[in-house]
Amino acid sequence: MFGRTKKEGLTEKEKQAGIVRKIILITLAILVLLAAAAAVGGWLYISSALEPVDENSEEQVTVEIPIGSSASDIGSILEDAGVIHNGTVFQYYVRYKNEQGLQAGTYELSPSMEIDTIIDRLKEGTVMKEPAFSFTIPEGTWYEDIVQTIAEAGPHDAEAIRSKLSDEEYLNQLIEEYDVLTDTVLNEEIRYPLEGYLFPATYEFVDENASIEKITARMIEQTEEIMVEFSEQVEESDYTFHELLTLASIVEREARKQEDRPKIAGVLFNRLEEGMRLEVDPTVSYAMGEHNYMTSSEDLQTDSPFNTYQHTGIPPGPIASPGRSSIQAVMNPEDNDYLFFYARPGGEVIYNENYEEHRQVQEKYRHEWVEAREE
């Protein structure tokens, strides 16, 4: 009796399995090649977009950058003027290199210029036009007050601004456009999706009819620039940028002096690591929707996910717009062992490692707040 060869002895099922394996291997190989081709293609596209439009050109183009132009605006203006290939690539290149200080002004640029040369030139601008309107948002301002400030200075009433900034379709557009925004801001527990993301600064607009979208873009881009600046700290953190921005907003509302910001940030992180409630008064005020001078025992019972006396962990979102100093403090908190701090009316902050000492400080100085309120 003759034996069968291995190949002849294969069952139909084994043959099919072999064919499937070949198909899978071929498919994987194709996918790898496509991914590699896409990566190379993307790299080549971006590289070419960063090259001079025409390195042999001797043409000089007059380009005017209005006051209040964002990186996106500047990219569009330069692309329209024919001195760069792609305005969007320019915008992201500026963010990637963390370039700041691009100035309004009138420039003589050429299609032959390197993109880095153009960026350097844009830092030397001279303002040619006075702004049609401007407004200043102080650090620690609530969203509601920001809306009112913009309405009082610009061409749009508060109701129109509120309506636009709460429109889900518009919010999704912003989330798609800006890396700093995620679906987290649409959490139903958050009172205002853009709370904390409208960066506190002075804004000037040449166009007296600047749209709500344009105004909003300027403010969010400022926050995105901060995120890019601290991208390394965000990547190394156990928390998302949204959570860090929320903590920064608490620091902003708590600290009066610069030296206290990293210390208070350190306390907040210590409490989170210990599984303790944050128990900070500004979150209670925000939960109540009132700028309270003092927090009463009754206030502490406010039912809200923002009330850090009632809920552990970080609140659902920021309670105000923090400035750069408070964001920096959260990104680089002081390494200390404090779990408690008490702020006196004059601005002094007293730190303690245990509750008993903290209670003694509270009992000693609490009358100061009562007296200050009565004055």
Can you describe what's shown?
This protein is mainly alpha-helical and 375 residues long. It has 14 helices and six strands. The protein has helices at residues 12-50, 71-81, 87-96, 115-121, 143-153, 158-165, 168-177, 212-229, 231-236, 241-254, 260-273, 281-288, 324-331, 355-374; strands at 61-65, 105-109, 133-136, 202-205, 340-343, 349-352. The strands form three sheets. The chain has a two-stranded antiparallel ribbon. The radius of gyration is 28 Å and the shape is globular. The chain starts with 11 loop residues before the first helix and ends with a helix.
Topology:
Layout: H1 12-50, E1 61-65, H2 71-81, H3 87-96, E2 105-109, H4 115-121, E3 133-136, H5 143-153, H6 158-165, H7 168-177, E4 202-205, H8 212-229, H9 231-236, H10 241-254, H11 260-273, H12 281-288, H13 324-331, E5 340-343, E6 349-352, H14 355-374
Antiparallel strand pairs: 1-2, 3-4, 5-6
Helix pairs in contact: 2-3, 10-11, 10-13, 11-13
GO molecular function, one term: lytic endotransglycosylase activity
Main location: membrane
Pfam family, one: YceG
How many alpha or pi helices? 14
Largest sheet: 2 strands, antiparallel
Helix content bin: 40-55%
How many strand units? 6
Rg value? 28 Å
In short:
The chain has helices spanning 12-50, 71-81, 87-96, 115-121, 143-153, 158-165, 168-177, 212-229, 231-236, 241-254, 260-273, 281-288, 324-331, 355-374; strands at residues 61-65, 105-109, 133-136, 202-205, 340-343, 349-352. The protein is mainly alpha-helical and 375 residues long.
